[in-house]
Design goal:
two-stranded parallel ribbon, binds iron/sulfur cluster, about 160 residues, 8 helices, about 5% strand
Length: about 160
């Protein structure tokens, strides 16, 4: 991934933080259920390429990245019960800075149809922002912008081939 694209996405992810609830330390403590079971990871080419670049630049575990890519190709049914390869019992996400959009938003924002996916004991559930098809762009304006970047990147990659 080219430097300018990597830097743009890094900046975008940093700017996203202003829409996120902030907590002291790790609000999930030892839960990590999202990375273990309920994060139904979906990822665009842009997010996967960004994670690849992040892993390279930060000397993260390349084999975990390859497993992660394979993990993303599995259907939710196939993934059931599996843990994301980047999940580490000691530190949580071992590729935190490169994590996907869904990793960043899940349990902070959720479609009203899926609120039952977040367990009652979830420590951050009380701050969750709920949206529906009508309020999606209002509640998560940054995702609309991100989708545009995904499309631009897809075309860019096609032109490179
Ligand atoms: S967001 Fe909630 S359910 Fe997910 S890992 Fe954290 S505490 Fe657990
Ligand atoms: S990339 Fe990190 S945050 Fe996302 S599911 Fe995997 S371990 Fe969890």
């Amino acid at each position: 991934m080219q430097d300018n694209i990597y830097d743009t996405i890094t900046q975008f992810y940093e700017n996203m933080n202003k829409y996120m609830p902030s907590y002291e330390g790790n609000p999930c403590k030892e839960c990590n259920l999202c990375c273990k079971k309920i994060a139904n990871l979906g990822a665009s080419e842009l997010e996967i390429d960004y994670m690849e670049e992040y892993v390279k630049r930060n000397n993260k575990d390349w084999n975990k990245f390859l497993k992660f890519k394979d993990f993303l190709t599995k259907s939710p049914v196939e993934k059931k019960g599996e843990t994301c390869p980047f999940f580490d019992e000691q530190i949580g996400c071992s590729a935190y800075g490169g994590r996907l959009l869904s990793c960043r938003t899940f349990a902070c924002f959720i479609n009203e149809k899926f609120t039952n996916l977040v367990p009652e004991y979830c420590l951050i559930k009380s701050n969750i922002k709920i949206y529906n098809d009508d309020t999606f762009a209002e509640v998560m304006p940054f995702v609309v912008d991100f989708y545009q970047m995904i499309e631009i990147y897809k075309k860019y990659k096609q032109e490179q081939q």
